[in-house]
């Protein structure tokens, strides 16, 4: 009994299984030989070999065609599924190798920070296509054909390969028109004005709140939650651009608005986020054309952003001499 079980676990040669699968699918030895690029005699030899090793007839002749026996049908149903999986794996590999460009997944809130860097990359690499996917979901990179992922905090631990990018800071900001209507002399004037809140997904450690900011400046915290809150930082900043109130905007997201005079920072009192942003990448990402260079460009840009988030705010263009 043990010998029989041992024999049932020994597979025929792969060439013999491949010949059997091709004959069953194509219906004849000649067609199978044409597909496999060998002679019909070689295919017939492999068929005799697999029937001998399995000790069962797999085909019977019907005129000029071969049809599966009942034993052959049982065997083919399983072999076909296995070969379908192998062909699917090879197809996926060819698609991945043939895919041009780089696929980058990022938190939607980082799209503003990425925009300038991607435009600069395109100018320097006009033949390399970059596809940016904005999503909160942390997807398996390999399964989704994603090369790089920009994520926050502990989400980086979902990936095997990652590098820390930067820790951002937040600062109060509003539109120039709103500031004219709500002049600020002290920090308390900001806290008394309409405030815009940002609430993140619970899986993330939250960004600094207005209560945190009030504590940092030694002022009384707002009495209650703001009547205007957004889960997306970009949406909260857009509300401030439209004159909706003060927002604790991340430096990486408001710097260009400040430079262009669309937002102003009445009091430059900053608080850092609790965790850094990270760049993760798939196991084959650095083997793709320009993949390693793309990663290095993003890491270098993040190092610069780290300096900006702790350094002076950009001077509005209209104020430059």
Explain the overall architecture.
The protein is α/β, with parallel strands linked by helices and about 325 residues long. It folds into three domains: about 1-100, Orthogonal Bundle (Arc Repressor Mutant, subunit A); about 100-165 and about 280-310, Periplasmic binding protein-like II (D-Maltodextrin-Binding Protein, domain 2); about 170-275, D-Maltodextrin-Binding Protein, domain 2. It is about 45% helix and about 15% strand. Strands 4-3-5-12-6 form a five-stranded mixed sheet, with helices on one face. Strands 9-8-10-7-11 form a five-stranded mixed sheet, sandwiched between helices. Strands 1-2 form a two-stranded antiparallel sheet. Helix 2 packs across helix 5 (about 70-100) and helix 3 (about 30-35) crosses helix 4. The N and C termini lie far apart (about 95 Å). About 30% of the residues are buried.
Features:
3 domains, D-Maltodextrin-Binding Protein, domain 2, alpha/beta, Arc Repressor Mutant, subunit A, disordered N terminus, 5-stranded mixed sheet, 12 strands, 321 residues
Radius of gyration: 31 Å
**CATH homologous superfamily classification of the largest domain:** Periplasmic binding protein-like II
Distance between the termini: 94 Å
Give unreliable regions as ranges.
1-6
Q: Strand content of the residues, in percent? A: 15-25%
* Sheet with most strands: 5 strands, mixed
Helical coverage, percent range:
40-55%
Number of discrete helical segments: 12
CATH class descriptor of the largest domain? Alpha Beta
Cross-sheet strand order for the largest sheet = 4-3-5-12-6
Secondary-structure class: alpha/beta
- Report the CATH topology name of the largest domain: D-Maltodextrin-Binding Protein, domain 2
What's the architecture of the largest domain, going by CATH?
3-Layer(aba) Sandwich
Order of helices and strands: HHHHEEHEHEEEEHHEHEHEHEEH
How many structural domains in the coordinates?
3
Globular, elongated, flat, extended or rod-shaped: what is the shape?
A: elongated
Calculate the mean pLDDT score and round it.
Answer: 87
What is the tally of beta strands? 12
